[in-house]
Amino acid sequence: MIVTITEDAVGLRDGHDLTRLHVESATAGRAADAERLEAAGLGHVREDGDVLLDVAVLHRLVSTTVEADLHTAWQGMLSYAARKGWTDPDRRFLRAHVERVPEDRADPLLPESTGPEPITAEPIPPDRFRAVLGHYASGVTVITGAAADGPVGFSCQSFSALSLDPPLVLILPGKGSTSWPKIQATGRFCVNVLAAEQEALCAGFARSGGDKFAGVEHTPGTLGAPRLAGACAWIDCEIGTVSEGGDHLVVLGRVHALDADPAKAPLIFHKGQYGKLA
Q1: What is the Cα–Cα distance from 56 to 65, expressed in whole angstroms?
Q2: Are 42 and 53 in contact (CB under 8 A)?
Q3: Which family does it belong to (predicted)?
């Protein structure tokens, strides 16, 4: 894929081709490149003239031009770039070389005016949203951390694996959580996947205030965050990026260690009720 920069816009060409990446610029020079990239939110220019492209913004740009599902190819491209040293440790930015070209060659395919028309729809009531999405059965986790004033944790249904290479997970704490800021300050957390018989434990960690760890057996994990006794599995993570997600936060965790008890069945949450595997 080729990111194009002109005096008027930033665009993309050959977005389906993830085997190459460079920038073609028809601007007056490095300062103009920096101005256009920053205005588009796509990245910035290094002192050596190469550019650092924001991976998330670049992915959105590619998604608007390519109909095929490129998830696997995209992750493969990022892994290859990381091995070559073309990304930062968190894979937030991709380094690309800039080639100076005539303006007609760098003509972008995606000027701002060609974007899709905004979709207008009636607001969705929160109770309706919750009821429909409640049909998606999930496991239940407790996110724990070792804060300065003692262990802290909260129940979290919104948990997902994100990447195999490197191993990454996602958790989505609510913005109103009083436990998450304490965990975030430590820079690490543990995902405890609850077992079928731990419904009461989930309820205890779902409440606000009080000593949630009273009477709860736990041991420190590899990074210090508590691992709850009896859980199906545990995943020790370092906090990567934290971004806005409506009334929640989207937290990326870099996995450092993990294990599971294959003899234990998970606790299931479905349509507002706890359940077990048949």
Answers
A1: 15
A2: yes
A3: Belongs to the non-flavoprotein flavin reductase family.
Instruction: Give the chain's domains with CATH numbers.
Output: 2-114 (no CATH), 126-276 (2.30.110.10)
The whole-angstrom separation of Cα 161 and Cα 152 is 23
- What is residue 70's DSSP assignment? -
The residue length of the chain stands at 278
| Distance separating alpha carbons of residues 43 and 101, to the nearest angstrom | 20
Strands 267-270 and 138-139: antiparallel
User: Which whole-number Å values give the CA distances from 235 to 7, 83, 135, 184, 200, in the listed order?
Assistant: 48, 25, 26, 16, 21
Tens-of-pLDDT digits for all 278 residues of the chain? 888 888 777 888 877 777 888 888 888 888 888 888 888 888 888 888 888 888 888 887 777 666 556 667 777 788 888 888 888 888 888 898 888 887 665 554 444 444 456 666 778 787 888 888 778 788 899 999 999 999 999 999 889 998 888 899 999 998 888 899 999 999 999 999 999 999 999 999 988 878 899 999 999 999 999 999 999 999 999 998 888 888 889 999 999 999 999 999 999 888 878 787 77
Range list of H helices, 92-209: 126-133, 180-186, 199-206
Element (H, E) at 9: none
Judge whether 34 and 44 are in contact, CB under 8 Å.
yes
The C-alpha atoms of residue 4 and residue 14 are separated, in whole angstroms, by: 11
pTM, full prediction: 0.59
